[in-house]
TrEMBL record:
Gene assigned in the entry: hyaC
Membrane topology: Multi-pass membrane protein
GO CC annotations on file: plasma membrane
Keyword Repressor: no
Keywords: Cell membrane, Electron transport, Heme, Iron, Membrane, Metal-binding, Transmembrane, Transmembrane helix, Transport
Taxonomic lineage: Bacteria, Pseudomonadati, Acidobacteriota, Terriglobia, Terriglobales
Entry similarity comment: Belongs to the HupC/HyaC/HydC family.
Transmembrane segments: 21-40, 60-82, 129-153, 180-201
Gene3D superfamilies assigned to the protein according to its UniProt record, in alphabetical order: Transmembrane di-heme cytochromes, Chain C (1.20.950.20)
A Pfam short name: Ni_hydr_CYTB
Protein name: Ni/Fe-hydrogenase, b-type cytochrome subunit
Record localization: Cell membrane
Gene Ontology biological process terms in this record: respiratory electron transport chain
Length: 231
């Protein structure tokens, strides 16, 4: 309610099917990568056998990690493409806060959502500028994980793609160093997932515009300003 008058909303188609498909494929692949990556870094014994050849559970862990990585790579490439041909909410220009209003929105979102020292101002229909910037940084971390992952795989693979990144190992000081940083950034993604889920439900509750359901159906709700007819 606003001054006794009901607040009207209009439906806006924000997240197209390719964006939603990318999100959920990415979520599944990333979850598998984090779980299997943790097990590779900290293997546990879940079965007992006299000889190694009598059990292969760790081999399956590694296989799932590699398979999930390939899914993640091709899914990311599809998202790169859609960043050029998708609607205005999917464009890559949204992820670079070069405009003054985007930079101001980052400050406003920090004050509102993080510090909670001000009330909500204008609410973005797509990603707000801070979320878009964080997603872009996440993309960069993913590229780093892809490069270091292929670099680690290059010593045991004859495939030309992993071997393209063989030079990364000596550049970073050896296998141990590459493995350390590759495993460390696993926790970046774990932290990101936790914060991402929390903020999605937080904004859904605070804004009431279908933030969570929009990544399933694609639709959000925009508030109709006073004197404007809903479309």
């Amino acid at each position: 309610m606003n001054g006794g008058a009901p607040v009207e909303y209009r439906r806006v188609y924000v997240w197209e099917m390719p964006v939603r498909a990318y999100h959920w494929i990415n979520a599944i692949a990333l979850t598998m990568l984090c779980i299997t990556g943790f097990l590779i870094g900290h293997p546990i014994r879940i079965a007992y056998a006299q000889e190694a050849y009598q059990q292969y559970w760790f081999g399956w862990v590694r296989f799932l990690h590699f398979a999930s990585a390939w899914v993640y790579v091709f899914n990311f490439m599809a998202r790169l493409y859609w960043g050029f041909v998708g609607n205005k909410y999917a464009k890559w220009t949204n992820f670079f806060p070069l405009k003054r209003w985007q930079q101001q929105e980052i400050v406003d979102v920090v004050k509102t959502d993080v510090l909670q020292v001000k009330m909500h101002g204008e609410i973005s229909t797509g990603h707000n500028a801070l979320a878009a910037l964080i997603y872009f940084l996440t993309f960069l971390v993913f590229v780093f994980q892809t490069i270091t992952g292929f670099a680690l795989y290059s010593s045991m693979s004859s495939s030309w793609i992993p071997r393209m990144f063989k030079w990364v190992v000596p550049l970073m000081g050896g296998d141990a160093s590459v493995r350390f940083w590759h495993h460390t950034f696993l926790w970046f993604f774990v932290t990101f997932v936790i914060v991402h889920i929390y903020l999605a439900f937080y904004h859904d509750y605070i804004e009431g515009r279908g933030t969570v359901s929009s990544i399933i159906g694609g639709w959000k709700f925009d508030r109709v300003e006073s004197g404007e007819k809903p479309k």
